[in-house]
Amino acid sequence: MQSTATSNASLTIGKLAKAAGVGVETIRYYQQRQLLPVPESSGAYRYYPAALGQRIRFIKRAQELGFSLDEVAELLSLEDGLDRLSIRQIAGKRLDEIQARLADLARMQQALSHLIDSCEHTGKEQPCPIIATLAAGSH
Q1: Nearest residue to 51 (alpha-carbon basis) of 15, 16, 1
Q2: pLDDT at residue number 1
């Protein structure tokens, strides 16, 4: 039999989902990906430690920062925070990918700005260079 302290610290999957701000299916998916444990059932229900809400929020925040679920799993395995080298390597890899994306976006921004400017300053008798440039790039 559960003590009052234990039952107060335990939630059904629906209550855990609500407390963490996710859907029940998200919790089940995280369980399938082995990011969250599957507790033993107690009667007709499974009771989850309320502390799992913090873990779910960690997963969601890491995803918002661009970490894949595989990377999140690695970070969770380093959850005690003592293996700083591994944690820095995972985060550094993510940062490198973000910086590469930003560089790509900056190149796209510059090219598109140039095309828009060219279109604006091209005489009415000539076609806008945006269409010609995009058509030429599709070969």
Answers
A1: 16
A2: 41
